[in-house]
Write a structure and sequence with these properties.
The chain is of the alpha/beta class. The chain has a domain of about 210 residues: TIM Barrel, CATH 3.20.20. The chain contains ten helices and twelve strands. The strands form five sheets. Strands 3-4-7-6 form a four-stranded mixed β-sheet, covered by helices on one side. The radius of gyration is 19 Å and the shape is globular. The two termini are about 30 Å apart. This is Chitin deacetylase 8-like.
Length: about 300
């Protein structure tokens, strides 16, 4: 949260609208008062499963019912404990980017979720692959199988267009680029980011995703300063906007010109109150251990988990 507050707080795009990021949240050990803070700061909250468990085979083999317990039920869970409106939770990222075939998208269609942002593409980055629906069967390359094989009307795919590392190898997230600048090399990191950004900016303008875990930025001080410098640069480009994933999907569904976009009112939302409550110890049904959690609601009776996402 220290990084998020300093990096994104009070930052605006060139249209003078506050920047917005999307945070993919899993349940275990989450402080829901901080989720509430992110929401109130104007960021988007999205789903990343209740358990985030290993091994990854669990996700590879997950069926519709498993996906509904892990992610469909998490929508009401995160809305309840962070006290944010459930109709603002739209997106999904699967743990470890491990695809589950048709199951996760069938779950999304049933659960009223809008988009998935778990599916990397190596083959379709020059030109970049734009977001698309699964109304028709996808022809996107399958990097981490199994990928969807069916037409599943409703959900959108926001492809994770891979970056290219210093040796030309693809990486779907910044922290899994194998060949990257030295941790303290601010100029190296800045040029690394810019090379990947310019492939989009000078190409077909497919949305540019900067996907990274906070810990990776924290242990690489050069990246931390390069990222701030990069965001400062974007703030001064009149045809670039730093938006969340749902805003990307919205624009693709209803594209308008840059000039019209700049004249639109900035996004707005009603702040969600939070009366912070510290809960615990709470017994977990799965492994019989105690948990503690901080919430914006009444404490649950037991630790919330699969089949009982509200801990009733």
């Amino acid at each position: 949260m220290v990084l998020y507050r300093s990096l994104l707080g009070n930052r605006r795009s060139s249209n003078n609208c506050p920047v917005a990021a999307t945070f993919f949240v899993n349940h275990e050990y989450t402080d829901y008062t901080l989720v509430n803070e992110l929401y109130n700061a104007g960021h988007e909250i999205a789903l990343h499963s209740i358990t985030h468990q290993v091994p990854t085979d669990y996700w590879r083999d997950a069926d519709y019912a498993t996906m509904m317990r892990e992610i469909g039920d998490q929508r009401s869970q995160i809305a309840h404990f962070a006290n944010i409106p459930i109709n603002t939770v739209h997106g999904v990222r699967l743990p470890f980017l491990q695809m589950s075939g048709n199951a996760s998208f069938q779950m999304m269609a049933s659960a009223g979720l809008t988009y998935d942002i778990s599916w990397p593409t190596n083959a379709l980055r020059e030109p970049g692959l734009w977001p698309y629906t699964l109304n028709f069967r996808s022809t996107q390359d399958c990097v981490i199988p199994p990928c969807p094989t069916a037409s599943i009307p409703g959900p959108w795919v926001i492809p994770m267009i891979t970056w290219t590392d210093l040796q030309g190898l693809p990486c779907s997230m910044v922290d899994n680029c194998f060949h990257h600048p030295h941790g303290a090399d601010q100029e190296g990191w800045f040029q690394f980011i810019m090379r990947n950004f310019q492939r989009h900016y000078n190409g077909n303008r497919a949305p540019f995703g900067f996907y990274v875990h906070e810990w990776f930025v924290r242990i690489n001080p050069g990246l931390r300063f390069a990222l701030e410098r990069f965001l400062d640069l974007l703030s001064n480009l009149d045809d670039v906007f730093m938006v969340n994933a749902k805003e990307v999907a919205n624009w693709v569904q209803n594209p308008i010109s840059v000039n019209n976009y700049r004249q639109r009112p900035c996004r707005s939302h009603v702040r969600a109150p939070c009366s912070a409550t510290f809960c615990g110890p709470l017994r977990a049904p799965a492994d019989n251990k105690n948990y503690y959690m901080q919430v914006c609601s009444r404490c649950p009776r037991v630790y919330p988990w699969l089949n009982n996402p509200l801990g009733l």
